[in-house]
């Protein structure tokens, strides 16, 4: 039917509309609203015109047909724009509008920008309007165009025609690019506060400025305008206040002090709205709620500040908050959902403010009760928000207990809510309200929920259960039970961190080891158990199987057979772990030696296609047959306790949820409460830990190496060798802190940012930038402990004839709070060349003991290199000029690492020189050139690196 | 607010408004992902969901979904009412607005949105004032039309 219509000749869109209605889709009324319908403004709009041209793509035709039609249209428009005949404004508008339409249908548009810009300077309103719309939707960062656009905007801003001014401001707010900020950031505040500016222009100006401030805060300087902007809160026109308050809120967040006066103004404005009758504000009343948007924004602004100090202001505010809470109890003035939404939006914002203040126990408890009511509301949205908001209430000491009273409702929500996002909120709330008193109940509920939980939230749930179990474990058998249950129920979602952690804890706690061995032994009895369970089982029985070996039902051989029955179903890493467990068995129970050797000797192990498994089988077999029992006992000694560190699970949850999800206090809590629990962090008790125990006892490790060289597998030693080297390098002693410490120093020769120094207490990071002979270095001192550092002082000295000198250093704050980081800036100027680096001395008190630390600052001569480009000819000419011995330095050195072209290139660039390609006749060689900039002189510097791959030099 | 999207039940994007600078590629990716997520939700589910580090507030009106992305500290319920007020404005302007009005008069839909929301914040919440501004603009248009026609 549609094809029968010659759409290009139809008069106005009415007929077409009827036909589309027959297709029955996009024409349902969106809103069922009372009120008289306005006549549709088709006759005036461009819409009708478009209807004709673009009917086809919408009519559900095939994608190809649509693309074909669009391409034809695009070609047509392109030819019109390129044609010799100059287009009049109307046609230009028409085609630009079509392009927009095509873009909005989802096609790419790469021309027409110029025509759109031309439209901006039209004095016809509609043409200008379409031009601006095109720019807003399809902005292109073409600098030439931006200049033209800015010109047009400038003209409109100074036109004093409010409609044009608004259009221009809307465009700036929509595009909000840096270039626009540069051009207009100083102009717009003037428009905003000028006495003769129309209200509508003021509104646009306020939000336009907000957008520019968000993109380029450095360019928007309020300065002298500050107080006049704050006073917009008092403006007669509600619309102006609504717009201005967004700007003020954003500015207050960044400069709270300058905008402090807004607090009392906001309170009085809020008070007037809250106490007004529902009809006072006329058109700003929304479904019987006075000015809901403005109220929310006012409450939001107040959240940028602590509770008002002025008693009268505070009293008035508390009164407002109480009124809002009271209103929630009143019967609704309308059954419409808009009424309750608007009312509750204000209520939730008020509750956020109450939580933010966290100082009015009375209000906090009332808020909690109100949310408690919402927990059982029939509106899903309200239940969702109540759960979410209660989560923050749970962290306040005043309302924590009140929140806990709703535990049954929340558990119920977790079980019965039909929407997964609501259940997720319920799980979050349970996590937040958990403490020692209800941990067992909550963990049990979460575990039982896990059995049916949605896949999307399982992993997070597992982490939460693991954390709660660890944090509130009073007896560790409960903890072990919980984690094993976790693995049983949701094994696939138990990440490595979780099972590493249970092993760390078991190893660190003597009293739970026997229980753990017994429990895993029982858990492994299940016919189908998760691989993670096998891993934990293998590890724990390998370490502590002897603790349950007395019972004939779990005799060594039974244990071994149980583990081995799972062996063939497991992946390679688990099998490797099991092999390590077997060798440990040989040590624990000599009577199993023959059986295990038999297993190791069988072809499927000793000739396994996997190198790691094969190597383990071979080595363990040899070890068990060659080494004496003493040696065996030393090599396979029980794992030493793990060093205490932050729980890696917590770190993982934080990473998953982003900062803020797990509050800092919570982190410290777990440090304090779970102090004993906290074992090693990221060093998992996996295979490398096994090797570590080998490596830490020198003589058997030498034996092992001996065995290795005689091992039949030719390829195996390489990988294991690396493993050992890794382990050794990890185990290297930490640098003594008192001596001059320069192990971080060398790393900075070729780079400017990174961590200079780190020990258990302190981390020092560096960010530096160099330009010509000047440099600036930012030092970040991070306190890694939870205890404050007192009398923290730093000083920089330049030993000997060091001439690169530190121009200015600002002293740092003497106190560094636990977990905090402070920053120091050093300005550096290079006077002449130098070879020693300046020293940084740091002193502070940590728990009464004076710590003293001296570090070499990574300021080396190459930081002042300016890269220089030159041709092959130039390079060698200059190279030859430098013939005197003191002008030349040559060094042959052995490469410490394998030489990788890309790595070398990166290093040489990091050195600060320019890397010159195609200069040296030998393509293997690297050629660099740079100029060292000092205050007095500039020294050119040329470099050739001739690697010799065979000799590793 | 970071952006607002209007899309049909078939997943066709009808209007997009971005209040944060993003590349075209990123915009397309976000749109695709969100349209899919929102369309997959059942009618009785709640109107809010967490998505990346943003909160999504959406509501369906007839065949059209209105979907806003707000930041963590923003208020979900009031955003829901922002959507509703926008629909009311469209409805009042077009007179029983339907999806086709927004498709064919997309420029009007944009102009109304700009009068109501600017830079992602409510600029003017009074229905009367917003429509007054739009009608004034329409009037300007009519006048120009007349001027253009008279010489002929």
From TrEMBL, chain A:
Gene Ontology molecular functions: clathrin adaptor activity
Positions contributing to a 1,2-diacyl-sn-glycero-3-phospho-(1D-myo-inositol-3,4,5-trisphosphate) binding: 80, 90, 94-98
UniProt name for this protein: AP-2 complex subunit alpha
Oligomer status and interactors: Adaptor protein complex 2 (AP-2) is a heterotetramer composed of two large adaptins (alpha-type subunit AP2A1 or AP2A2 and beta-type subunit AP2B1), a medium adaptin (mu-type subunit AP2M1) and a small adaptin (sigma-type subunit AP2S1).
Record function comment: Component of the adaptor protein complex 2 (AP-2). Adaptor protein complexes function in protein transport via transport vesicles in different membrane traffic pathways. Adaptor protein complexes are vesicle coat components and appear to be involved in cargo selection and vesicle formation. AP-2 is involved in clathrin-dependent endocytosis in which cargo proteins are incorporated into vesicles surrounded by clathrin (clathrin-coated vesicles, CCVs) which are destined for fusion with the early endosome.
The Clathrin adaptor alpha/beta/gamma-adaptin appendage Ig-like subdomain domain, residue ranges: 746-858
InterPro entries: Adaptor_Complx_Large_Subunit (IPR050840), AP2_complex_asu (IPR017104), ARM-like (IPR011989), ARM-type_fold (IPR016024), Clathrin/coatomer_adapt-like_N (IPR002553), Clathrin_a-adaptin_app_sub_C (IPR003164), Clathrin_a/b/g-adaptin_app_Ig (IPR008152), Clathrin_app_Ig-like_sf (IPR013041)
A Pfam family: Alpha_adaptin_C
Gene that specifies this protein: AP2A1
Record family assignment: Belongs to the adaptor complexes large subunit family.
Keyword Lipid metabolism found: no
GO cellular component labels: AP-2 adaptor complex
GO biological process per UniProt: clathrin-dependent endocytosis; intracellular protein transport
Mode of membrane association: Peripheral membrane protein
UniProt subcellular location: Cell membrane; Membrane, Coated pit
Chain segments carrying region Disordered: 661-708
Biased composition (Low complexity): 687-702
Entry-linked PANTHER family: ADAPTIN, ALPHA/GAMMA/EPSILON (PTHR22780)
Automatic annotation (TrEMBL), chain B:
Alphabetical list of Pfam families matching this protein: Clat_adaptor_s (PF01217)
GO molecular function: clathrin adaptor activity
Domain of life, source organism: Eukaryota
Ranges where the AP complex mu/sigma subunit domain occurs: 1-140
GO cellular component assignments: AP-1 adaptor complex; clathrin-coated pit
Keywords: Coated pit, Cytoplasmic vesicle, Golgi apparatus, Membrane, Protein transport, Transport
UniProt xrefs under PROSITE patterns: CLAT_ADAPTOR_S (PS00989)
Subcellular location: Cytoplasmic vesicle membrane; Golgi apparatus; Membrane, Clathrin-coated pit
GO biological process: intracellular protein transport
Coiled coil segments of this chain: none
Its membrane topology: Peripheral membrane protein
Family, as annotated: Belongs to the adaptor complexes small subunit family.
Oligomer status and interactors: Adaptor protein complex 1 (AP-1) is a heterotetramer composed of two large adaptins (gamma-type subunit AP1G1 and beta-type subunit AP1B1), a medium adaptin (mu-type subunit AP1M1 or AP1M2) and a small adaptin (sigma-type subunit AP1S1 or AP1S2 or AP1S3). Binds to MUC1.
Function: Subunit of clathrin-associated adaptor protein complex 1 that plays a role in protein sorting in the late-Golgi/trans-Golgi network (TGN) and/or endosomes. The AP complexes mediate both the recruitment of clathrin to membranes and the recognition of sorting signals within the cytosolic tails of transmembrane cargo molecules.
Protein name, per record: AP complex subunit sigma
Species whose genome carries this gene: Amphiprion ocellaris (Clown anemonefish)
Upper taxonomic lineage: Eukaryota, Metazoa, Chordata, Craniata, Vertebrata
Gene, per the UniProt record: AP1S2
């Amino acid at each position: 039917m549609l094809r029968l219509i010659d759409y290009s000749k139809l008069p106005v869109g009415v007929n077409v509309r009827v036909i589309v209605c027959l297709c029955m889709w996009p024409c349902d009324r969106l809103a069922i609203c009372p009120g008289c319908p306005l006549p549709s403004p088709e006759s005036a709009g461009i819409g009708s015109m478009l209807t004709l041209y673009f009917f086809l793509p919408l009519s559900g035709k095939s994608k190809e047909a649509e693309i074909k039609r669009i391409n034809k249209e695009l070609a047509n428009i392109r030819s019109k724009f390129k044609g010799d005949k100059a287009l009049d404004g109307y046609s230009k508008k028409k085609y630009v509008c079509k392009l927009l339409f095509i873009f909005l249908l989802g096609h790419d548009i790469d021309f027409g920008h110029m025509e759109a810009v031309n439209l901006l300077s039209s004095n016809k309103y509609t043409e200008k309007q379409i031009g601006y719309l095109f720019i807003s939707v399809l902005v292109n960062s073409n600098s030439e165009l931006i200049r033209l656009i800015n010109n047009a905007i400038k003209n409109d801003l100074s036109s004093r025609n409010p409609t044009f001014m608004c259009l221009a401001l809307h465009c700036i707010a929509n595009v909000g690019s840096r270039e626009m900020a540069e051009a207009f950031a100083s102009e717009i505040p003037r428009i905003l506060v000028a006495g003769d500016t129309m209200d509508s222009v003021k509104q646009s100006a306020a939000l336009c400025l907000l957008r520019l401030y968000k993109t380029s805060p450095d360019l928007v300087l309020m300065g002298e305008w500050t107080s006049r902007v704050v006073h917009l809160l008092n403006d007669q026109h509600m619309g102006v206040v609504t717009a201005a308050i967004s700007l003020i809120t954003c500015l207050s967040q960044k400069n709270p002090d300058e905008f402090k006066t807004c607090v009392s103004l906001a309170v009085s404005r809020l008070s007037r709205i809250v106490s007004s009758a529902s009809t006072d504000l006329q058109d700003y009343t929304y479904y019987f709620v006075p000015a809901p948007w403005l109220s929310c924004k006012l409450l939001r602004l107040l959240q940028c500040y602590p509770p008002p100090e002025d008693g009268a202001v505070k009293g008035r505010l508390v009164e407002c908050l109480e009124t809002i809470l009271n209103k929630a109890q009143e019967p609704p003035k309308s059954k419409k959902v808009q009424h309750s939404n608007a009312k509750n939006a204000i209520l939730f914002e008020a509750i956020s403010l109450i939580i933010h203040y966290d100082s009015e126990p009375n209000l906090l408890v009332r808020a909690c009760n109100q949310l408690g009511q919402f927990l059982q509301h029939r509106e899903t949205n309200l239940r969702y928000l109540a759960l979410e908001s209660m989560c923050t209430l749970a962290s306040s000491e005043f309302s924590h207990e009140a929140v806990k009273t709703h535990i049954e409702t929340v558990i119920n929500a977790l079980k019965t809510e039909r929407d997964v996002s609501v259940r997720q909120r319920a799980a979050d709330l349970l996590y937040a309200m958990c403490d020692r008193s209800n941990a067992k109940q909550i963990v049990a509920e979460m575990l039982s929920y896990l059995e049916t939980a949605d896949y999307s939230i399982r992993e997070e749930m597992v982490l939460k259960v693991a954390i709660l179990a660890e944090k509130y474990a009073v007896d560790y058998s409960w903890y072990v039970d919980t984690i094993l249950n976790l693995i049983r129920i949701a094994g696939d979602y138990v990440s490595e961190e979780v099972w590493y952690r249970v092993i760390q804890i078991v190893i660190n706690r003597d009293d739970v080891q026997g229980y753990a061995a017994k429990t895993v032994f029982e858990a492994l009895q299940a016919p189908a158990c998760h691989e993670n369970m096998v891993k934990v089982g293998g590890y724990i029985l390998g370490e502590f199987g002897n603790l349950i070996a007395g019972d004939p039902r779990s005799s060594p051989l039974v244990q071994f057979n149980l583990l081995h029955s799972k062996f063939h179903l497991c992946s390679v890493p688990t099998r490797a772990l099991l092999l390590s467990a077997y060798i440990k068995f040989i040590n624990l129970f000599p009577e199993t030696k023959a059986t295990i050797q038999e297993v190791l000797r069988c072809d499927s192990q000793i000739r396994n296609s996997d190198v790691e498994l094969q190597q383990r089988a071979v080595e363990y077999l040899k070890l068990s047959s060659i080494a004496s029992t003493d040696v065996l006992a030393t090599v396979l000694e029980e794992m030493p306790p793990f060093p205490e560190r932050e729980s890696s699970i917590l770190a993982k949850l934080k990473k998953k949820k982003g900062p803020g999800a797990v509050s800092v206090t919570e982190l410290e809590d777990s440090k304090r409460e779970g102090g004993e629990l906290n074992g090693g962090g990221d060093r998992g008790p996996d295979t490398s830990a096994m090797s570590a125990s080998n490596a830490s006892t020198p003589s058997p490790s030498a034996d092992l190496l001996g065995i290795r060289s005689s091992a039949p597998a030719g390829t195996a030693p390489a990988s294991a060798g690396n493993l050992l080297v890794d382990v050794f390098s990890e185990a290297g002693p930490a640098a003594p802190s008192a001596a001059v410490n320069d192990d971080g120093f060398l790393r900075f020769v070729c780079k400017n940012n990174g961590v200079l120094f780190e020990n258990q207490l302190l981390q020092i990071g560096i960010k530096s930038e160099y330009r010509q002979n000047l440099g600036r270095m930012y030092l970040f001192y991070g306190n890694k402990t939870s205890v404050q550092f007192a009398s923290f002082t730093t000083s920089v000295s330049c030993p000997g004839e060091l001439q690169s000198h530190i121009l200015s250093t600002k002293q740092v704050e003497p106190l560094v709070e636990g977990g905090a980081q402070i920053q120091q800036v050093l300005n550096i100027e290079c006077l002449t060349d130098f070879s020693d680096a300046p020293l940084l001395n740091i002193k502070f008190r940590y728990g009464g003991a004076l710590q003293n630390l001296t570090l070499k600052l990574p300021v080396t001569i190459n930081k002042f290199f300016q890269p220089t480009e030159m041709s092959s000819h130039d390079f060698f000419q200059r190279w030859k000029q430098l013939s005197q011995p003191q002008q030349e330095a040559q060094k042959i050195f052995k490469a410490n690492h394998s030489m990788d072209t890309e790595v070398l290139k990166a290093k040489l660039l990091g050195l600060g020189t320019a890397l010159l390609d195609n200069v040296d006749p030998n393509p293997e060689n690297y050629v660099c050139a740079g100029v060292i900039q000092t205050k007095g002189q500039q020294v050119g510097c040329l470099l050739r690196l001739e690697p010799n791959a065979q000799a590793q030099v | 607010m970071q952006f607002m999207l209007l899309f049909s039940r078939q997943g066709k994007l009808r209007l997009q408004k971005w209040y944060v600078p993003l590349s075209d590629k990123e915009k397309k990716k976000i749109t695709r992902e969100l349209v899919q997520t929102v369309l997959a939700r059942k009618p009785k589910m709640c109107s809010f969901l967490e998505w990346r580090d943003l909160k999504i507030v959406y509501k369906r009106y007839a065949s059209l979904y209105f979907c806003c992305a707000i930041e963590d500290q923003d208020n979900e319920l009031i955003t829901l009412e922002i959507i509703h007020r926008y629909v009311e404005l469209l409805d009042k302007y077009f007179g029983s607005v339907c999806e086709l009005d927004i498709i064919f008069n997309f420029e009007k839909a944009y102009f109304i949105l700009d009068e109501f929301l600017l830079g992602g914040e409510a600029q003017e919440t009074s229905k009367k004032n917003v429509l007054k501004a739009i009608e004034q603009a329409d009037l300007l248009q009519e006048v120009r039309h007349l001027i253009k026609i008279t010489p002929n």
